[in-house]
Amino acid sequence: MSLARFALHGGAGVIDRKLLSPTREAQYRDEMQRIAAQAWAALANGAPALDVVEQAVRQLEDCPLFNAGHGAVLNRDGVAELDAAIMDGRNRAAGAVGACFAPRYPISLARAILEQGDHVMLVGPNADRFALARGLECVDPAYFLTADRQHQLALALAEGRISLDHDNVQQAPDQPSPQDKTGTVGAVARDQYGNLAAATSTGGMTNKCPGRLGDAPIIGAGTWADNQTCAVSATGHGEYFIRCVVGYDIHARMAYGGQSLVEAAQAVLRRVGEMGGTGGLIAIGADGTVSLPMNSEGMYRAWVGADGRPQVAIYR
Ligand code: ASP
Fold it and tell me: Ligand 1 center to residue 70 CA distance, Å?
C-alpha cells in the first residue's frame, strides 16, 4: 500500500446547487480530477511532495475557473493582487509572496523565495522585481483580468461589500455567474518518503483594500507543513484564519495536545466559526490521514488516499 497522499482545494464558500449549471459543475470536477490524477502519478513515480504541490497549484493558477493566477478576483482598484505560499515539512523551509502583480505563477515565486533562503516573505512591487530578477515568467496585469471578475467587482462595489469569491449573489441560474468562478487554490501532499508539503495561492477577496494580505501567504495561518504532524492549506475569510493561526494551531494541538489530525482540524475550524469566519481546509497527517473539513456549504476539493483513486467533491 502506498504511503503517498494528495489533496487539493479550489476554494470554500456558499456554493448553491441552483447557481452551478451541470456543465460548469462538470468542468470543475474534470479539472480537479485531472490535476489530482497527475499529482498522484508524480508521487507514484517518486516525485517529492514539495514539487508536487507546486505543480498542482501552477495548474490551478492557469485555470480561469479558480481565484488564483489567471482569473484571480480584483481588489477595490480593479487590479488582481496576488498572494501565495509554499512550505516544506522536512525542515519548515517556507516562501511566501503578498500583494504582488506580475508573476504568472505566484506559487513559483514563493518557491523561488524558499529556495533562495534569505527571507520567508516578499510583498508588493519588490516581490515582482525579485520574480523578474530570478527569470520567472511575468505578465502584464491585464493578463489576470477576466470579464467575470470585473462584473463581480462591480457588484461588490455597488453593494459596498468585500466578498469571498464564492459568496452567493442572487441571479438567474442561466446567467453566467461570477460565483461560477470559485476559490483560492491549495494543495497538500505526502510523498513516498513520508515528507509533507503545502501550497496555497489566491487573489484574496473581491473589493479588498489594496495592500491587504489574506491568510494564504501567512505561514502558520493559511499554509503550514511539518513532517512531525501535518500539512495544511486553508480557504475562507482570511482575517479569521489569520487570527486563529489555523495551520499552526492544528500542528500545535497534534504536537503538544496529542490530538489526531481530524480532531485538531475540526476544533480549529469550530473556533473560526465561533469568531464569525467561514471556510474550510485540506490537511494530510504524518500518518497519512486525509482531512477536508469545512464550515461553509461547500468546498471544491479532490483527494487521493491509499487506494490511489482520485475522488472529487463540491458540497458538504
Ligand atoms: N482565504 C482567502 C483570503 O482571505 C480567500 C479564499 O479562500 O477564497 O484571501
Answer: 16
The whole-angstrom separation of Cα 206 and Cα 145 is 13
Distance CA(197)–CA(215), nearest Å, equals 17
- C-alpha distance across the termini of the chain, in Å: 28
Instruction: Check if the beta carbon of residue 192 is closer than 8 Å to that of residue 5.
Output: no
Query: Atom 7, ligand 1: which residue's CA is nearest?
Result: 235
Q: Is 235 a catalytic residue?
A: no
Which residues approach ligand 1 with their CB closer than 6 A?
A: 11, 67, 164-165, 183-184, 202, 204-205, 214-216, 222, 235-238
The pTM of the full predicted model, rounded to 2 decimals, is: 0.93
CA of 237 to the centre of ligand 1 (A): 5
Beta bridge partners of 101: none
Q: Is the pLDDT of residue 174 over 60?
A: no
Q: Three-class SS of residue 221?
A: coil
Give the pLDDT band (50/70/90) at residue 99: very high
> How far apart, in whole angstroms, are the C-alpha atoms of residue 308 and residue 6?
9
For the CA of 164, the nearest atom of ligand 1: 8
Contact 146, 71 (CB under 8 A): yes
Question: CB–CB of 272/295 below 8 Å?
Answer: yes
Burial zone of 93 (CB within 10 Å; 0-12 exposed, 13-18 middle, 19+ buried): middle
Mapping DSSP onto H, E and C, the string for 166-216 reads: CCCCCCCCCCCCHHHCCCCEEEEEECCCCCEEEEEEECCCECCCCCCCCCC
